[in-house]
Specification:
The protein has about 220 residues and is of the alpha+beta class. The chain is about 15% helix and about 30% strand. Strands 1-10-7-12-5-2 form a six-stranded antiparallel beta sheet, covered by helices on one side. Strand 3 and strand 4 form a beta hairpin. The longest helix has 14 residues. Bound molecules: N-[(3-hydroxypyridin-2-yl)carbonyl]glycine and fe (iii) ion (FE).
Length: about 220
């Protein structure tokens, strides 16, 4: 297997109870992920959403799946349609769904069925400040986060803002899963350093898969 500057030997880093770092887990899906990403971002382009306070985010975002996470002056929420086009978000590709289910299972969360996939693009300098993911009605399900492209330092804290976060270096095709006792852990991404990834160029792409709605509500 190709190993380069951006690829570490597969060695999971220790994480708190309920969380897992799966080094290189997405490598088997790499080609499918890159192909699907191009398709999704052509149909639902990456865009800089604004925070409820009106600031444009440094991370550009889009979604695929039944539900997409959006932020605007009205707040954060999941919606069934792309507000830019009015169309439903692109469907969740089988390959992305299978990767998420396999990663969740590997981390001890069998039966994960994602209904939302947020796609984040970090240009060098982009970051995400520490926050909890609490916009999902179904907090029983874990969160699966797939890193592609440039490396980044994932900040993984505790259940309060006061705990100093772990710094978890992530490279292309690493996956992080958190749920159970870690489901509401504070997390974020340190500013992405300059660089050029052989497959993705000067950017980090993150896919975050979640279960936003409990199955019965979602089936409506
Ligand atoms: C990441 N993203 O992009 C982590 N959480 O690596 C997040 O943690 C996140 O992008 C909630 C809402 C949007 C996000
Ligand atoms: Fe988050």
């Amino acid at each position: 297997m190709e190993r380069d500057l951006f690829t570490r030997a597969a060695a999971p880093l220790p994480m708190p109870a309920g969380a897992a770092h799966l080094a290189g887990f997405a490598l088997a899906w790499e080609e499918a992920l890159l192909k699907e990403l191009a398709r999704i971002t052509a149909a639902a382009p990456l865009r800089h959403m604004v925070t409820p306070g009106g600031q444009p985010m440094s991370v550009a975002m889009t979604n695929c799946g039944a539900l997409g996470w959006v932020s605007d002056r009205r707040g954060y929420r999941y919606v069934e349609r792309d507000p830019e086009s009015g169309a439903p978000w692109p469907a969740l590709p089988d390959a992305i769904r299978e990767l998420a289910i396999a990663a969740a299972r590997h981390a001890g969360y069998a039966g994960f069925e994602p209904d939302a996939c947020l796609i984040n693009r970090y240009a060098p300098g982009a970051r995400m400040s520490l926050h909890q993911d609490r916009d999902e009605q179904d907090q029983a399900a874990p969160i699966v986060s797939v890193s592609l492209g440039l490396p980044a330092v994932f900040l993984f804290g505790g259940l309060t803002r006061r705990e100093r976060p772990l710094r978890v270096p992530l490279v292309h095709c690493d996956v992080v899963v958190w749920g159970g006792p870690a489901r509401l852990a504070y997390h974020g991404v340190a500013p992405v350093a300059d660089g050029h990834h052989p497959k993705l160029g000067p950017q980090r792409i993150n896919l975050t898969l979640r279960r936003a709605r409990p199955p019965n509500i979602n089936a409506r």
